[in-house]
Amino acid sequence: MSAISSDGKTFSVDGRGAKYNSREDIRSILDGVDPALIEEVHFGGNTIGVDASLALAEWLQKASNIKIADFADVFTGRLISEIPQALTAICDALIDKTSLIELNLSDNAFGGRSVDPMVPFLTKNRSFQVLKLNNNGLGPAGGQVLANALLDSAKLSKAEGKTSNLRTFICGRNRLEDGSASAWAEAFAAHGGLVEVRMPQNGIRMDGITALAGGLAKNRNLQYIDLQDNTFTFEGGLTGVKAWANSLRAWPDLHTLNLSDCFLSANGEVPELVTVLAEGSNPKLHSLQLQNNNLEGETSQLLAENIMENMRNLKYLELQWNDFEEEDEHLSALRVSMEQRGGKLSVTDEDEDEEEQEDAEEEAEARAEKEAQLEMDLEEKAFQGKTEKYEADELANLMSKVELE
After folding, report:
1. CA-CA distance, 117 to 404, in Å (whole number)?
2. pLDDT at residue 405 in the model
3. For a Cys-Cys bond, which of 46, 108, 213, 274 suits 247, CB 3.0-4.6 Å?
4. pTM to 2 decimal places
C-alpha cells in the first residue's frame, strides 16, 4: 500500500505498527518522497527510535509546505531515555515551519520528565493553530512547563504587535490537576483567540476550575468546551460553579459544552451555571452534556420551562446518571420539546443505547450508499468501455467495406 496520497500531498504510514529504529528504516519509506511537496505527515501507531527520528528530522526540515504533523503514539516500547532525544529532533525540525497548522503528539507517554523538548517549538513557532496533547501523562509539573511555554509564545507575539494563531487546544487525560491549572488559565488569557478547548479527565478541582473560568473568559470566540470529569465543587463550596456562571456570557458563539461528571451540584441544588444557561446566556448552544452531576427535579423543571424560549438551538441534551425521579414530568416535557425540534434528550442508559444504535445504522447506511455509488461508477465505466468497443468495431467494419477508387 502506497504511503503517498493520490494528489501527492499526504504521506501516511498511520497504524502500521512498524518499528523504525535506524536511519535506514526511515529512509526506506521516505526514499523518493519530495518533502517540499508534502502538506501532511501521519506516523501515528508506529514506534520511532532515536536514529530513525534524526533521519526523519532531516527530511522534515525540508518540508517547507507542511500543514499537519501527526506523531500520535510513536514511542510505544521506547526507553524513557530515548524519548527526549527523539522528540527533540522532531520538534526542532518543525520550529521554523510557518505553514504548520496542526501538531498532534497525543498518546505518547512523555510524563513530566520528557516535556522540555517541546518547549522551543511551543515558544518559537507561532504559526500553528491546533495543538493536540491528549493522554501524555504530563502531571501538574509537566503541564506547568508547557503552559508557561505557550504563555511565552503569546508574549512574544504581543511584543511584535501580532495576535496569537492558537485556536484549538486538546489536552485530556493528563493529570494536570490544580498544580498547573493557574498556569493554563494565564496562558489561555494571553492567547485570547481560542475557539476549542478540550481538557477532560485531568483531576482539576475547584480552585483550578475557578482559575480556568477566568482565563477562558478572555477568549470571546470560544465555540467548544469540554471539561468532563473535573471537579467544580468541594465540600459544599460553589466557587467553581459561580465562576463559570459568570464566564458563560463571554462566549456568545458557544455551541458545545460538556460538563458531565463535574459535581456541579453539591447537595442537589440547581447549579448557578445551569440557571444562567437556561436564561439564554449562549443562544447558539447546540449540544449540552450534564451527566452525573447530582442534579435533581428543580433543575429538570428549570430546563423544561426555558428550553423553548431561551435555548432554541439546543439539539442534544444529556442528563444521564443524575438524581431525577423516575416519573419526572419535567423530563417528559423536555423530551417532547427536543423531539419537536428534531433533537435528542438522553436520560437513561436505554437512551444512550438507542443513540449508539442510531449512529451505527447511519454509518451502515452511509457505507451502503458509498458502496452502491462505487458499484454504479464501475458499471458505468464498464458500459462506456463496451460502447467504445462496439463503436470501434462498427467503424472497422465500415472501413473494411470502403473500396478505394
Report:
1. 82
2. 39
3. 213
4. 0.88
